[in-house]
Amino acid sequence: MKHLLRTAALIALGGLSACSTPGYRTLNPSCLDMAAQPKYQRDGHQDTTYIVAVLAGRSPQDAARLSFFNQAADDVAMPFAAPQVSVWGSFGAWGYRHRINAVLHSLHGGNTEAVAQRRLDLAGLIAGRVGAGGGADWQTGFLIHSLGDSYAHTNAVGEAYGGLYGHVFDGHWPDLVGNRQALYFDYVDALFAALEVDGASDREGLAAFKASLRATPDGDVSAVRSAILAMRDDIAPAPRLECEALADELTMRNVSRFLREVEAGFGRGRPVS
């Protein structure tokens, strides 16, 4: 039986590895050669973070770093993305699997009250880090990913999906911004408030960004994605990042330790190192 389980795990990992080339190498404009263009944009995490961070008064460089680290939670797939970790973590790494799914990707299975509290906790942690000089580190980027997923990874009645199956039975529907614009605007407002720099933010720009999305047809996912991409192109050129070096900052040991501390601080107002 152990041999069969080991074989099944290796087969599963082999299939996942074939799809695990880090997405930032082809999809993040801050990681591409000047002549190259990404195949498509990731609007919910990568591009929204860049737009909102710049509008909140952060520098394009810091916005790009936060955008990179936010998306890295999905891009660096084998150690950090929910689908991959859900497979290999089921073979003896349940604690790590729980932290990746329930904390990093906000798949905690809570009711609407728990969801609201999780959003408040995450927004507070982000504001605390940037206010204390944490700025654009990977920890803040991962917290922003968790905050975004605390909105996206909820079902039609506002309850969080659980860590066992995630939203597999609803497909990609929860992650598509155009399907739930009002919920997306709630996230944008929360992220803007957490990142806002007094005297440097652009609230009129934020209102214009949301107005451009409201002008798209209801439920038109492609139109919303195009509007977000257009705003990213207009707001500030994407600065070049040393993306491989940034990715090398992410280790399973450090991420696991950080997520453990984050979870321990939920609902307690405890600072996270």
UniProtKB/TrEMBL annotation:
Source organism superkingdom: Bacteria
Name of this chain's protein: Uncharacterized protein
